[in-house]
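Weekly structure sync, notes
Attendees: PL (lead), two postdocs, one rotation student
Agenda item 3: pending single-chain targets
PL asked that the sequence for the first pending target be pasted directly into the notes so everyone works from the same version. It is reproduced below exactly as submitted, 312 residues in total.
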Amino acid sequence: MNEVNAVLGQWSWWYRTHNLKSQPQIMFRKPITMTWRRSVFSARSRSLSGGSEFFSGSGRVTMQQDEFSGIAVVTLDNPGKKNALSGSMMAEFEKITQRLEQWSSGKAVILSGHGGDFCTGVDLDLVRNILHSEGGQKMSLHLHDLMTRFANLPLISVAVIPGIAVGGGAELTTACDFRLMTPGAKIGFVQIKMGVVTGFGGGTRLTRIIGRSQALRMLCSGKVYRAEESKDMGLADDILSGKGDSIEDAKDWIKDNFPHNTEMTRQMKKIIIGASELDSRCSLQNERDIFVSTWGQSLHVDAVNSNIKHRE
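Predicted structure, written out during the meeting:
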């Protein structure tokens, strides 16, 4: 409770000091990554995450960046454990997220798993090592911060889900803008079966994605849903053909759905982040600031002179 009160106190201070009447231009001088919120949670995460027992274990997280397409591919890879997240993988994921935050020419990021599955949540070896309230707090604070940072990247984020995504693995998918499933894929929030609730912030994000009633049903049933069911509920955005390389299919899906200029796509994503994370007044201020930053710039001028608006 003290932690919660401290965060709420900090938020109250932030809101007062960013009152739009007195500082009308302050809201979006930097890209919206919820900088204040990240710094508060990061400080707490760092203070709690010391010790080799947390950031250790098997597996790895890798990233390939394609400067030509502007698409990065992040892969969870923990052989024999269906890509369950170890502490060392969480640390690598954080480093990769930091690199993506600094990737100014990037357009999109694909998150997937190696070897036919997406992710089965937290590695049980790690769970057993931190099976006490302090360990749960440590992991949850770290992962809430990390998932918020990943969700707020100015990149189109797509989870490509092969095989199974359960528990924390299902929560990981909610940190992405879109979820593409292979025909045989399954996803389930099975935490309730384990006597625990969502620990990565997935309950909050799931509710925003599919709505209160559907989220409550999904979380409380503990059911594992097939691809078609997930699409019907609004969690999966599309089902890949499954006939070829799912990552290449996802790249094609991104190119088809986001064909326009990389920088403008990033700016649109920042508007959506603002609408999701800020109150309406601050979100509108954010949108105005971004609009002004693009108005009259070379892309805008060229489009006006070419009469692009009235072309199909």
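Discussion points:
- The CA atoms of residues 206 and 212 lie 9 Å apart.
- Confidence is low (pLDDT under 50) at residues 1-50.
Action: rotation student to compare against the earlier draft before next sync.
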